[in-house]
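In this supplementary section we document a worked example of the pipeline. Step one takes a protein sequence of length 478 as its only input; no multiple sequence alignment statistics are reported here. Step two produces a three-dimensional model, which step three serialises into structure tokens for compact storage. The input and output of this example are shown verbatim.
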Amino acid sequence: MLFALVCLTGIPAAASVSGWHQFQKDPLHTGTTSDAAPGSDPVLLWSMQAGAINVPPLVAGDLVYVYDANGTMWAFDRRCGSMVWRNETSPWFIQSSTPAYGDDMIFAAERDGDLHAFDAATGERLWKAHATDHALACPVTYHDHRVYVGESYCRAPARYFCYDENGTMVWSSSTGVAGAYEWCGACVVDQYLIHPISSGNLVSLFRENGTMRDIISLADDQNISFARSDVGRIRASVSHHRGYLYVASEYSQEQGYIWKIRLDCGRFIDSGWSTEIGFSTSTPVVHDGRVYVGVGEHGCSGNLVCLNDSTGDVLWSYPVPAGVKSSPVLSISDSDSDSGGNSGGDVHIYFTTATANGSLYCLRDCGASAELAWAYNPPDSGYILQGAAISDGMVYFGTGGGYVYCIGRRGDLDYDGEISATDAVIALQMAAGSESSAPGADMDCDCRVTSVDALVVLRDAAVMTQHATTFMKNGEVN
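The serialised model returned by step three reads:
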């Protein structure tokens, strides 16, 4: 069997994969990846216990990083979930700032107002900087050797901070407008840093020195033709796609909006739309002329909503039993196959529901509607606040019950919905070091990929082929 496996090594290798380095993947908060993720038959590949988790994981290289609500940063081997290191920030009971990875470091902000940098490989604390006496409760943004984060829960107008990766403050900026930055993460667009304010404003700063380029109130009907007087609060990060910014707001448990506004050379332009969708703290994701966003508050039912990017019209709304406070993430694959994994150009949307004993959902966008591909209810009954990260065909998420989960399809390494000789060859290439290892290739769950795993994949492929041949001989397959 090993000889047969070696003879098959001329089959092309699997495509390279990308990481998930910060909130919604990157500094633009795109929330999309070409890494295929399970479109059917999800399998729990591993789970590990940490503390209560209120933010999505990060994935970089061979490690998954989890920041728990008690202030502990964890690093797990993405292939099997074994703990690689852990370190502490401060013992607050509800850390809610998503960390960021950059230049082999993990940057974490916490509610004591401190910003920390850890060596991504070893967990060693590299530096700690006290930014403010107030909380840091929005996602950390990393770009071009700089770290950006804003303060929350303060009476005075809040500040946004910029640090270099050595822990030196580069600038702090305040607009003078009331409001703070709970969950209001910034995106980087060219030379500008764009962030929301909870009071319903968007701010554009020169990211080099923090001076203001522009500010707009979404209630300003003198400058925005699609302004709303009842904007309410913004408690979501802003995303950017092809010259436009997207953000959501919440006015009450039943009312809220999604916004699209033009950004040109750092200035806000009266071009775009606003659509009432209901309460939302979700960061919108844009792909192929469609905008996806979560809707629903704690204790309420929710929806995953899809809108026309050109007009803002709602194309479909998929109901779920609890609010979707998380931000959706998308897996888009260019594979030719149309079965199993996300393939054939299909768009799969992954999100969680904000409730105790919540679930991770996967929807398939069918054009005029969405269909449920699968839902995974984890074995712990913890509350799920934030969403997921996708890397190397796996979906990672955590719960308030203190567990981090890796969902995938073991043995299906080219994500075509089948286990075949091609998968066995990919596993052998991983064992030889010519391909980076994937969790689904570790068939014997020993935290490494070896030729033994490749043989197990080949055996499973042979079994599947034999079953298919038997069915055809019996006339059960036309």
